[in-house]
Amino acid sequence: MHLTPARNDSFIGSETQGYLLILALFTRPVLSMVGLAFSFAIASPVVGLINKTFLPAILGNEISAGTVSAFFITIFALILYFSVLKGVITWIFVLPQSLPDQVLRIISAGIGDLGEGRALQAAEASEGAGRLGAGSLDNISKAGSEHATGAVKKRAMDAEKAKKEAGEKFDAAVKVQNTGKDAPR
After folding, report:
1. How far is 182 from 174, CA to CA, in rounded Å?
2. Burial of 154 (0-12, 13-18, 19+ CB in 10 A)
3. Which one has a higher pLDDT value, 167 or 75?
4. pLDDT at residue number 5
5. End-to-end CA distance of the chain, in Å?
6. Which among 55, 56, 70, 147 is placed 20 to 30 Å from 165, CA to CA?
7. Which are the contacts of 92, defined by CB distance < 8 A and separation ≥ 6?
8. Distance CA 171, CA 152 (A)
9. How far apart are CA 87 and CA 89, in angstroms?
10. Average pLDDT taken over every residue of the chain
11. Vertex 147, ends 143 and 151: CA angle to 5°?
12. How distant, in Å, are the alpha carbons of 18, 26, 153, 183 from that of 109?
């Protein structure tokens, strides 16, 4: 390859591409192993962080302990936890496949992605499921707070109505007492 003259008007091209191809052939497996080692190194702390974030929220649900809603909230929280965990682990272990492609693309030696597109699409789909679960959890908490707010407002209106009716009956009783007629029932 290094004996090929570099001519600008040649359809063969420069010898640079040949050297970069050989570099890619030898460095891609090494970079894959570096990416795998890095994935194993960061997987444990990231999973530990997720555990410290989610598990106290799941296990600390003592407000409505012993009710049917607590059971369903716990089941939903576990489903959300496992979907987030699956998405994060998928993203971590896409690294051995994407690291060589990205490094070789930086030095312009890449042949193209060798399945990176499919791996990243699968990882993005997993992340989408985690986002969907997180959005559902937000909607459930909003719905629960709206329900609680609505219930409190309804009770306040019922109490106001009862107070008004009691006041009217009291006023009627006072009038009857002053006039000496029978009180309306």
Report:
1. 11
2. exposed
3. 75
4. 56
5. 110
6. 147
7. 39, 42, 43, 46
8. 28
9. 6
10. 74
11. 170
12. 9, 11, 67, 99
